[in-house]
Design a protein that fits this description.
Jelly Rolls, 36% strand, binds N-[(3-hydroxypyridin-2-yl)carbonyl]glycine, binds fe (iii) ion
Length: 148
């Protein structure tokens, strides 16, 4: 399997955001208390994300290198909060061929990429062995964005 995603605020499928899911039902709103978590990570009160993508990774899931470029405004950063077992976050550059740096993200780690790195290629390597006390062999990642 691959990553499973739940969308709040806007529904995202490659390569667009919409207000309805595949079966036509409306997208659940992004609650203010959750958006506030993203804003707090940036430390800028003017950053108000309007979408959170909640990704579930089991022990076989990975995410290939890609750019997040379906948002309208690249001035707003992407905020990522990781929970559960550690993952290696691959963070490259503006070109797909740029060699990515590797960051080990553990439970609670938050990554913000914006400004000159807003469009950097990134991905998640297959999860290594591990067991989180609460989540077991699972990783959950929330990314906050400003889609519109
Ligand atoms: C992560 N997620 O799960 C990073 N990008 O650590 C992403 O880079 C991502 O979850 C585009 C769409 C959904 C995502
Ligand atoms: Fe991404």
């Amino acid at each position: 399997m691959s990553v499973q995603t739940v969308c709040l605020g806007w529904h995202w499928t490659p390569y667009r955001y919409s207000r309805t899911t595949e079966d036509g039902s409306p997208v659940k709103p992004l609650p203010e208390w959750l958006a506030a978590l993203g804003a707090r990570a940036v430390g800028d009160p003017s950053y108000v994300p309007d979408v959170a993508l909640v990704n579930f990774y089991d022990d076989t899931a990975k995410m290939g290198m890609h750019q997040d470029k379906d948002e309208q405004d690249f001035a707003a950063p992407i905020v990522s909060v990781s929970l559960g077992i550690p993952a290696i976050f691959l963070f490259g550059g503006l070109k797909r061929s740029d060699k990515p740096a590797r960051f080990r993200l553990v439970h609670g780690d938050t990554v913000v990429w914006g400004g000159p790195s807003r469009l950097f290629f990134h991905g998640v390597a297959p999860l290594a062995d591990g067991e989180h006390a609460v989540l077991g062999r699972q990783r959950i990642n929330l990314t906050f964005r400003k889609a519109r």
